[in-house]
Each structure stands twice: as C-alpha cells, then as structure tokens.
Sequence to fold (274 residues):
Amino acid sequence: MRLFISILLVFVLQVFSYALDLQKPKTYEKSNEIKGWMMSEKLDGIRAYWNGKNLISKNANIIHAPLWFTKDFPNFPLDGELWTKRADFENIQSIVLDKTPSKNWEQITYNIFEVPNTKGDFLKRLDKIKTWQKRNKNKYIKVIKQIKCKDKDHLNNYLEKLVNLKAEGIILKNPSLEYFTGRSKNILKVKKFKDMEGEVIGINYKTNEFNKKVFKSLVLKLKNAVVFNLGNGFSKEEKINHPKIADIVTFKYYNFTRFGKPKFASFLRVREDE
Fold:
C-alpha cells in the first residue's frame, strides 16, 4: 500500500510539474527576424494555467476562482491571462489573488493565448479553443486576437497604437512550431520600456512645510546586489500607503548608468504571490 501511494504521489507531482512548465518569452531585439510571426496585445493581468479542474498561477499556487466562474470551462488545458481592462492591474490583482473569491470576479475574463499539449502549429492549437467556444459560448473565456506581422514597421505601428491605448505591449510568436515550453527565442515580448523587480530594503522620508515626515523614495536592492533609490511613479495614494520593507516591487526603466543603476526608473506595482 505504501509503495502504491509513493508511486501515485510521484506521478501526481510529475504531472503537476509538467503542467507548470510554461512558455516564457524573451525580450525582442531589433535584430530578431519576425516577418510572418503572429503578434497580439500583451495583457497586463494575472497569468493562469487551466489544468482541466483548477486555475493555477505561474508560481504553482491554486487561484481561488469561484465555482460559477470555472464550472463550464473545457476539460483540456489552457494558458491565458485573467484580465478586466487596460491599466487596471491593481484591481485585477486584488480580485484574482483574494483567497475568498468575491462577486467582483464578474469583472474578470480568461483570455487565452495558448492551448498546451495540443498537436499542430500555433494557429491549429488556437483553433481547438475557438471551436470549443463556438459551441459553448462561455462569456468568461476570450481568445486573444492574433495578427500576422508583415514587417518591423507593422510591428512598431501596432505597438505605438496599443501604447497610446495604455496597453502594456505586444507578444510575438513563431506560429510554425509544435507546442513547446520554457524560455524561448520563438516567443518575444515587445515593450516601449524594460521592467525589473527589486526588494525594498529601506524607505526614505523628507520633512514637508508642516514639519511632517512624508514619503520620498524606496531603497531597492536588485538581484545583482545593486542598490538605488526609487522615487518616481508613485500616486498620491501610493505615497501614503507605500510599499513596505521586504516587499518586491516592479519598476520600469530605460537603460542603465555606468554604475549599473536603472535609468529613469518609475514605480509600477508591488508584486504579490501569484
């Protein structure tokens, strides 16, 4: 009996681990040849893997979606983004990562960009969920629109259009391959800026005209041990309820100084455990 349980446990762990071995994009470089690739809007939401029974985050945590949200989902795997609308990440995060699901899940849709472990090239894999959706018409499932990229001008024009609409960026994908996993040059993220994470190791304050201490900046430590102050990009509310020591924050930047510090860094969000 013990042997059977051990074998079963190993099998379950292997399956679960395989399910979370997802596709991960590299960053687009101007030298990349992307003519004929498919491009789509990169949604700024919470990535979720549907294993046929549960939604699972990229960090292998169960997402506590209400049963009414997932009860009519397909019985095959999906990969996509839980999302509401552009420039709404904080709201999405608060809804999706709440361990007690609320009625606010009505705002969420599951936007599909891949059908894992399905035979065929990228567009054939997407046909599987499109065909299923035509029959079932699930209002919570959407398939992200894919556009064939003509050339780099086409890519740049589409990126400019999306950025003006407050979108995060574009995902480019080689459509000719069978399903693959891991970080690959066959899937690329395209943004106007780069982003990075850092750990809050200190908080700087200043004294205002009323002789009160107010938030000035965060002291961040990067993975490579570089330390710098992040003071831009905070709203009035975020300055009052600012990140705390040990929080992991995401910020955008445009390059590095000769000392390895991010240039023109601007706060984006606190990273929650997804």
